[in-house]
Amino acid sequence: MITSTPVSVSILSAGYCLHPELLTLKGGTIKPVAFPAGYALLRHPQHGPILFDTGYSSRFFEETAKLPASLYRHITPVVFKEGESAVERLREAGIAPEEIRYMVLSHFHADHIGGVRDFPRAQFIYLRKSYEAVYRLGPIKALRAGFLPGLLPEDFTARSLPVDEYSPKRPLPPGFPFTEAYDLLGDGSLLAVEMSGHAAGMIGLFVSGNGYDYLLCADTVWSSRAFRENRRPHPAAGLIMSDRKEYRHNFDRLRVIYENFPDLRIVPSHCREALALWGTGGVQ
Known about the structure:
By secondary structure, this protein is of the alpha+beta class. The protein has one domain: Metallo-beta-lactamase, Chain A, CATH 3.60.15. 25% of the residues lie in helices and 24% in strands. It has eleven helices and twelve strands. The strands form two sheets. It has a six-stranded mixed sheet. Strands 7-8-9-10-11-12 form a six-stranded mixed sheet, with no helix packed on it. The radius of gyration is 17 Å and the shape is globular. The two termini are 20 Å apart. Its cofactor is Zn(2+).
């Protein structure tokens, strides 16, 4: 195991958006394809259920009802049905919103934080520069950054535990292109690494559970085909990236991980293939 404390892992999704595949994968089709808004439920033996992102919720449509935010839903059409949100899926499995004590946020794009307000007692774990990159932006710049501030609760800062302030570091095994990771809970169960480029301060998460090692790599790639076939996104995708050079660097790191650790389950947040292979279809 990569981590020293195993957790139970459920790979889930809450809604999806439509994009031409060509933008996310060199040589892809120009036709719009569905990209699920993935998230993960991690059941920790001591800390209980923990969320890695949330996917969409109906609040996304409330926050994009008026200009300029309404441009978001026109540029990136979103499909979401009642009953698909993280909070509703958890309730069906007998997990009350108040039971979520920790929530790991890979970054602050709307498709990753859509359900954050549904969990009133959660403390938020993220890399500080990820939030600093968006929270002071005006409406137009926030829209371009994919950030809808109304998706976050008013007491967000008070409930925050930035990893670079609260989490110790732990060395990773040889063969990884990262020498160390943030040990989010101090017990070796959740190991986070910075994978900036798509968004400033974006983090990926190593977890072990269900007999497998996982890397929840957020939006380092949009599909497993990208790292498996070494196919970067279309250059136009760079318009929504925080840093193209960092993106290329972390894309290459993901390729190294894929080649050096073939049994590791790499889970991009928007990959239909990964969701079909390892998604649970429901909370476990």
